[in-house]
Amino acid sequence: MKDYPTHPDLYMDPVDAAEILGIATSTLRTWARTGRLEGVVDWFPSPTNGWRYYRAGDVYDLAEERGKTT
């Protein structure tokens, strides 16, 4: 198992994920829409306005691929 800065099964919000990846949140949404990074939707507060979260392990793996980890 890789040594992640946080547990790989925890989830992070789009702002934190984008910061780790060094991209804008709009780019993150595009990547999620095109399948480059899988997001999980929490349908609270409503089914039409859910919040998207990203698995920390997936974010850190993608950051490593992009050379964005230290």
From TrEMBL:
Residues 11-54 form the Helix-turn-helix domain. This is Putative site-specific integrase-resolvase. SUPFAM superfamilies: Putative DNA-binding domain (SSF46955). One of its GO terms (molecular function) is DNA binding. One of its GO terms (biological process) is regulation of DNA-templated transcription. It comes from the Bacteria. Pfam families: HTH_17 (PF12728).
